[in-house]
Amino acid sequence: MIRLMTGDNTFEVEQAVRALVVAFSGVAERVDGSTLELKQLPDLLMGVTLFADKRLVIIKNLSENKDVWANFGDWLPRVSDDIDVVLVEAKPDKRTATYKELKKQATMTEFVQWTDRDTAKAEKWVLDEAKRQGISLDTKCAQVLVRRVGPDQWQLFHALEKLALVDGVTVDVIEALIDANPAENVFNLFDAALRGDGAKVTAMVRSLEVSEDPYRLFALLSGQSFQLAAVVTSGQTDDVAKDFGIHPYGVSKLESSARRLGRGGIRKIIRAFAEADDDMKLSRADPWLLIERALMKVASL
């Protein structure tokens, strides 16, 4: 059997490969496809061993090896029935003849990186993984963890490993032990501005200056203002969450500000971020100063 696993969700790819290795009765062979030579293909795909009836061959990043990849499609019909070949490719070129042959002959699985639209899936996965690791975690804690870490499964997995070391997991424990990702920091920063807490805005900006890129953070803040505008103009929480891939929790947090500000207020916020964007592009001032100034305008509304 020939399998092709693709996609940028390296966690799920690794888990799928591991499941095959665990289910295999022998010792899996792992091959770096980027350094493979054409002369090695006969032994790799057709060779048998005296010590096992079946072989499991896992080849990673073969598409990076242009010469071998170009010829690999011709070898597919010759793969021995006693050999299971697993190709792991992050993003193979779908235009190549080898990929087209694999599409005809291989079992293909794509593992896509989760985004904010997959928050509900991430929360369910956290609960299941916590149970597997023997961690007592309720739904509220799972929601807070996903919101704090984001939907990246590797980061969620490592966060759960850290939480497994404590006796009882609560929201306070999560906030104390697990570092917030940039999106969560931005959410809290924008929320402080909406609540008119200028002192907290200044303190958070000073803290974020140490570790964050100002242009990336400004882009995330602009996204928050766009989400607020969507809530203001739509008025339908469920529609906004679905259409824009915003977690319902995030929408609910923006609703009170949306009602208070109205369309006039959101226009002023959008104008403040638009002015900051222009000033950044023209390097009129330090980007952190421009970010703080835009947020202070929001806080003054």
Structure description:
- The protein is of the alpha/beta class.
- The protein contains 14 helices and 5 strands.
- It has a 5-stranded parallel β-sheet with strand order 2-3-4-1-5, with helices on both faces.
- It is elongated.
- The model has no long low-confidence stretch (mean pLDDT 88).
Number of strands: 5
Helix content: 55-70%
- Separation of the first and last Cα atoms: 64 Å
The name of the CATH architecture of the largest domain is Up-down Bundle
Q: CATH topology of the largest domain, which one? A: Zinc Finger, Delta Prime, domain 3
Task: Quote the average pLDDT.
Answer: 88
| Poorly predicted runs | none
- Helical element count? 14
Main sheet? 5 strands, parallel
Main sheet: strand order: 2-3-4-1-5
Task: Please render the helix and strand layout as text.
Blueprint: E1 2-6, H1 10-23, E2 29-32, H2 41-45, E3 55-60, H3 66-75, E4 83-89, H4 97-105, E5 107-110, H5 119-132, H6 139-149, H7 153-163, H8 171-177, H9 182-194, H10 198-209, H11 214-234, H12 237-244, H13 248-281, H14 287-299
Parallel strand pairs: 1-4, 1-5, 2-3, 3-4
Helix pairs in contact: 3-4, 5-6, 5-7, 9-10, 9-11, 9-14, 10-14, 11-12, 11-13, 12-13, 13-14
Any descriptors?
alpha/beta; 3 domains; five-stranded parallel beta sheet; single chain; Zinc Finger, Delta Prime, domain 3; 9% strand; Rossmann fold; Helicase, Ruva Protein, domain 3; 301 residues
